[in-house]
Amino acid sequence: MYKQLESMPTSITELAVEHTRALERAVWNIFSTELAVETYAQIVDGRPISHVYDDYCTSRRTDINGSEPSLEAKQVVEAFQAKSNPRLLQIDSKVSVLLQAVLEHQLTMLAQAFQSTSIGEREFNVRLLEILAVLCHEIATILSINAEGELRQLPEESPFLPQPTELYHLFYTSSERYPQGVADIVGYWAEYRLFGGVVLFDRGELGVEVCSLMLHLSIKPKPNSSLHWARDVFIHPVGHYKIYQLSDAQIQRWAVSVLSENLQPKEIHDGLRFRSEKYARRIDPYDALSLNIYRDKYAAKIPEQRPRRCVTRLEDDPEMMDAIEELNQSRPSIADLPITPPPLLPGESDDH
What we know:
The protein is mainly α. Helices cover 41% and strands 5% of the residues. It has helices at 17-31, 34-45, 50-56, 71-82, 97-115, 122-147, 182-195, 212-216, 248-258, 265-272, 285-288, 318-330; strands at 198-202, 233-236, 243-245, 282-283, 293-294. The protein has a 5-stranded antiparallel β-sheet. The longest helix is centred in the middle third of the chain and has 26 residues, at 122-147. The model is unreliable at 1-11, 85-102 and 209-226 (pLDDT under 50).
């Protein structure tokens, strides 16, 4: 049976009051949405619901036909929410010591960068997005590790197991490279559900963060530091779409939504997932790492031989979309075409 968790995980305990309140509000706003409950309940079930599965996988499945997660899974997630105190976020004792150490280290590094920002500035919004993406990912891994997909798990001999888990983003399935193995695959899937894709960042030429506090203190960062620059933000969607860059306006609207004290969960839900703007900068996933666009370098495994794209999605080529639209507009409509009567057959006359 599922092992209940007592609280949400994090080790961020020394943030300034205003940063702590902002983070608390954002976490609570996200977890109050139906999208979050639905996402994490699927993790407890160990299986996707039908419309979600159809969104990220093209193969047809006759065994996935549910329209919502199981009631028991929803109750587990809601109990998890109810027992969570955003002000005293701790790691549950049932989670392994190794996982606890990884999570504490990663979030502590992010907290240092978050602390150095000023509320309302672009850098604050970017850091908030980064820390929430990691936190939502890690909560998914903990739920996955504790649940082990016990509620609706497929038998091991099932033909429907293309990946180690049914909850995956096709580009992030290298469990042997991940600190938490298969649970991290589920974590990237949760990001796709909550943010519209895996959240990535432009780490700069060095790929090493020098946060404002370190600059102020003239501290030289270590080459292998976990702190990174978080300049531009990118989203890696599912469905073989290209990675796209978020505009400052998109990040600002998202921050207003998750930090709101007045919006209802439905309104927060509508502003939570990102969608690409038509003329957003787009990056082929196989180029991202060489351009230092990633969150963690180990996340995506780049094949030695780059696969050829036989199909390009129209949304990834806005210039082509414009050309097709212009061509359609230049064509005369059916109403403008002259009506030519059909030729007369032998013996017919045009009197009638």
